[in-house]
Amino acid sequence: MDELVEAALAGLSSSSKRKYLPVFRSFLGMIPLNEASSLHVRIWASKRESRVSRRTLKQQLYMLSRLFRIAGRENLSKEARALAKEIRAPPPMPKVDEDLIRTYQEIDNLLSDAKPLQRAAIMMLAETGMRVGELVSLRWNDVDMTNKRARVHGKGGKYRYVYFTERTTSLLRELPRRGKLVFGITDRTIRRWVSSLLNTHPHAIRHAFAVWFLSKGGNPRVLQRILGHSSLRTTEVYLDLAQSLVEREYRMVTGEERKSGL
Questions:
Q1: pLDDT tens-digit readout, 61-91
Q2: What is residue 89's predicted lDDT score, i.e. its pLDDT?
Q3: Phi-psi bin for 160: left (phi > 0), alpha (psi -120 to 50), beta?
Q4: How far apart (Å, rounded) are the C-alpha atoms in residues 160 and 230?
Q5: Which residues contact 32 (CB under 8 A, 6 or more apart)?
Q6: 163 membership: H or E segment, kind and range
Q7: At what angle do helices 38-49 and 54-70 cross, to 10 degrees?
Q8: Cα 162 to Cα 127, 172, 178, 195, 209, distances in angstroms
């Protein structure tokens, strides 16, 4: 056996050998360790990516990095460690249950007794998917009521456009202009209003907007732009939730929900 391989395997504990030896063997099956290059490590990782979870691949790359270091292949060790650091855990699944979707769909009725400023602020959140910080910092000169859109200053100093309907436009027109800011409220105030009027929190409304948009056939890339996500992967976590909503509506319309006991 290659001396480099013997040195690497000798550096493993018995439990690590049982857990990671097949992974190491699969790598060695491609090319002898003394002839391997950083490119081979990348090829190996790309093939493993379709077979194991991100978390598992990350662990395996760190394990290979350690083995390569023991074997004296520092260049391979650095490559494996760099690839492991590039792997990001998927964003946590947003909490969007049936009650929240129902609240979102009936938001107009739920806000019927709210004060004009409350209705306008919460409806702006619901129709645009804006973050709370973006809402409270929204300025009148960024709002285009003719074209029903607003320029939002998001994270990292970037700006984007969000869109709203005539419903929100009418609410905005009713508001008095007392300064540069449209709403002139704090984050805490909007959170309190959403909690008392809708029994939820503002970011949940953003989640509900995303699911609603996709369930109506919206394009994920368009939604990415609207929400201001830097990565499409962040937006795609809503796809499964939206699909579940579409299927549930279909079952209800066709009567299958009663038959299947869903």
A1: 888 888 888 778 899 889 999 998 888 766 5
A2: 65
A3: beta
A4: 12
A5: 2
A6: strand 159-163
A7: 160
A8: 9, 15, 23, 24, 12
DSSP state, residue 181: B
Q: Which of 84, 53, 54 is nearest to 66 (CA)?
A: 84
Percentage of the chain exceeding pLDDT 90:
44
Chain centroid, CA 96 distance in Å: 13
Residues 257 and 198: their CA atoms lie apart, in Å, by 27
For 103-161, how does the pLDDT look when each residue is reduced to its tens digit (9 = 90+)? 898 999 999 999 999 999 999 999 999 999 999 999 999 999 999 999 998 877 789 99
Edge-first strand listing for the sheet containing 143-144: 143-144, 149-153, 159-163
pTM given for the model: 0.62
Catalytic annotation, residues:
131, 155, 203, 206, 229, 238
